[in-house]
Amino acid sequence: PNIDTYNFTAIHASFDLKMKNKTTVLGLMSGSSLDGLDACLAQFEKIGDMWAYHILESTTFPFPKDLASKLKNSPTLDAQSLLALDVTYGLWIAKNISSLVEHADLI
Questions:
Q1: 45: how many CB neighbours lie within 10 A of its CB?
Q2: Measuring CA to CA, how many Å separate 64 from each of 27, 72, 103?
Q3: Which one is predicted more confidently, 23 or 71?
Q4: Are 41 and 101 in contact (CB under 8 A)?
Q5: What's the confidence (pLDDT) of residue 21?
Q6: Residue 58: CA count within 13 A, CB half-sphere
Q7: Regarding predicted confidence, which is higher, 47 or 93?
Q8: Is 50 a residue whose pLDDT tops 80?
């Protein structure tokens, strides 16, 4: 199998082993367009032998122009600047995800 199939299979197997009858999952994705961070908060529930899901919240958090520019230019950064960007990006993600979780009334 190719690497994508292998990774999906490994993630899927891990997902099945760790889940009980009901769980809430946060999915995040950011593509090369640098338009923003897509987030989906979903609840999965096992009913018999089947899994059902319900999307609790989903949104796109647009990147601020300065952050998008830094991310676009990240391949040219030196190690220290790249580490600083990693922290900045991580904090930006955390702030936005916190607001999503609060809006879904999960905290």
A1: 15
A2: 21, 12, 21
A3: 71
A4: yes
A5: 83
A6: 9
A7: 93
A8: yes
Q: Which two tokens stand for residue 28?
A: 């995040």
Which residues does residue 58 pair with via DSSP β-bridges, in sequence order?
A: 40
pTM: 0.72
Reference 9, options 24, 91, 1, 75; nearest CA is 1
Q: How many Å apart are CA 82 and CA 25, to the nearest integer?
A: 29
Alpha-carbon span 45 to 75, nearest angstrom: 41
Q: What is the pLDDT of residues 7-44, one digit of tens each?
A: 444 445 455 545 578 888 899 999 888 999 999 999 99
| Cα dihedral 86/92/97/98 (nearest 10) | 120
Buried b (16+ CB within 10 A) or exposed e, 9-43: eeeeeeeeeeeeeeeeeeeeebeeebebbebebee
CA 7 from centroid of its chain's CA atoms: 16
Pairwise CA distance, residues 55 & 43, whole Å: 6
